[in-house]
Amino acid sequence: MSFVVLPEFHVAPDKLTAFLAAARADAEASLADEPGCLQFDVVVQQGEGVARVLFYEVYTDRAAFDAHLQTPHLAAFRDALVLCDEQPVRFLDRVVP
Length: 97
Known about the structure:
Blueprint: E1 2-6, E2 8-11, H1 16-33, E3 37-45, E4 51-59, H2 62-68, H3 72-78, E5 84-86, E6 90-94
Antiparallel strand pairs: 1-4, 1-6, 2-4, 2-5, 3-4
Helix pairs in contact: 1-3
């Protein structure tokens, strides 16, 4: 069983490009530098008004996610949170790989 994290962000159209650049950097570093990070997808739903950006993060376990919280690339991503309205994060157990 893996540990899934689903953060969601609402981003205004004029801030979306900058926000996605920060998200991409976090996702790429997570996959490259964290052995416990199995998957990190960034998906966008655009419509009228704000875009909904969802991260689909899969870690080997909760400890791997807790280690992710201490990384420099996540600290850098947190600087981009001024560009969005952060929604509640959902945590799930992945039962099928």
